Amino acid sequence: MRKKKAAGILASLLLAAGVMAGCSSSTSGGGDKASDKGGDILIGANLELSGGVASYGQSIKEGIDLAFEEINKEGIDGKKLKLVPFDNKSEAPEAINGATKLISQDKVTAIIGAATSGNTKAQIEIAGSNKIPLLTPTGTAEDVTFKDGKLNDYVFRTCFIDPFQGTVAANFAINELKAKKAAIFIDSASDYSKGLAASFKELFTKEGGQIVKEEAYVAKDTDFHAQLTNIKGAAPDFVFVPGYYEEVGLIVKQARELGIKAPMMGADGWDSPKLIELAGKDALNNTFITNHYSSGDSDPKVQEFVKAFKAKYKDKSPDAFNALGYDSAYFIADAIKRAGSTDTEKIQKALAETDGLELVTGKMKLDDKHNPIKSAVILEYKDGEQVFKTKVNP
Q: Can you tell me the distance from the alpha carbon of 146 to that of 163, in angstroms, rounded to the nearest whole number?
């Protein structure tokens, strides 16, 4: 198994090297795409459509599909947007393969995806070398767009970043839940989980809170009783679990079974219908998440989106990943319109200059690190339903 995995990664890197070395000006930044000469504007979607976090990628694609239908009613300068999907199977080597194929074979104008920060980072060098805008709807790690003092010029995001979510969670725990002693339970292999935990811990302790226990697990674990027993013994009045729904659902279920009654909280990684299946409705009572949007928000733009989404998807209520996929489609379409071309360097410039674009998840204004400055919401689970609690401005 290890040899096969290593061989797969090597093959992916070789493919990527071929793209970076072999693309001519007709398939990289500055060159006119085929869509400039008529036909569709091709947009890649490098998403987790299967594998460990398939719920995220599937939701993002649903949002993109709805947005493209709406945008294509009028089109962009007489052209229509066409989505070219690629399933990265929730794996970084496959995300590399996806970026390679979408750029070298499909000749896309831009790529939307991936859902996770790690699978987005896997594409950064390929996208940058070929001057193809890469837009992640939900890659929240701070170093996706800016790392080691350097801006990744062609990488953008529709979501806010992890440190903001962590500080929002800490403020909520202290000010709303009056927590004084917190436990933190992280996925030690996840930059997402570790980043959120760090920002939560920094503010929580700065405001006088005490971290009484820190425990860790690894993705794909299913038995958390030992760590949860340790957490219970520390008697926290709040438990922060910044992870993904597959493990979090089991963690919440097992925590309640062990008698941990303290409020538990996470971030957007919890947001999946699968969470309720894994944890159970009762176990999720008295749990909270920070998120990018709520279908319960009374904002007219939110309610218009909810209505359109339910009409297309048989009364299904849209989650934050649906909304961020939808917003990402409008974000890239707006940039193409303002660029007046599918020249990728012009689109990159238009994306970077976005200021005041009204989207479902908030008004889009980018800072100098290509991060949106926008609000967050806090949701509470009540009997298996997400209930809008409050909106937090940056």
A: 14
Q: Which of 376, 338, 346, 10 is nearest to 170 (CA)?
A: 376
CA distances from 114 to 21, 48, 100, 250, 332 (A): 23, 7, 14, 25, 15
Q: Domain boundaries in the chain?
A: 2-160+302-375, 162-291
* DSSP-derived 3-state class of residue 39: coil
The dihedral through the CA atoms of 214, 215, 220, 223 has a sign that is: negative
> Which fold does the domain 2-160+302-375 belong to in CATH?
Rossmann fold (3.40.50)
For 327-363, b/e burial (b = at least 16 CB within 10 A) is: bbbbbbbbbbebbebbbbbbbbebbbebeebebbbbe
CA of 38: how far to CAs of 34, 41, 44, 46, 127, in Å? Answer: 7, 9, 18, 24, 24
Q: For residue range 76-98, what is the model confidence (pLDDT) as tens digits?
A: 999 999 999 999 999 999 999 99
DSSP reduced 3-state for 33: coil
Task: Give per-residue pLDDT as tens, 264-322.
Answer: 999 999 999 999 999 999 999 999 999 999 998 888 999 999 999 999 999 999 999 99
What kind of fold does domain 162-291 have according to CATH?
Rossmann fold (3.40.50)
Place of tokens 């093959």: 11
Q: DSSP for 206-265?
A: HTT-EEEEEEEE-TT----HHHHHHHHHT--SEEE----HHHHHHHHHHHHHTT--S-EE
Q: Does residue 114 have a cis bond before it (omega within 30 degrees)? A: yes
> 0.90 cut: is pTM over it?
no
Question: Would you say 351 and 136 are in contact if contact means Cβ atoms under 8 Å apart?
Answer: no
Asked if domains 2-160+302-375 and 162-291 share a fold, the reply is yes
Separation CA 49–CA 55 (nearest Å): 7
Q: What is the mean pLDDT of the chain?
A: 91
Q: Tell me which H or E stretch contains 129.
A: helix 124-130
* Range from 4-13, 94-103, 127-136, 186-195 carrying the lowest mean pLDDT: 4-13
The SS3 of residue 41 is strand
Cα separation, 333 vs 248, whole angstroms: 35
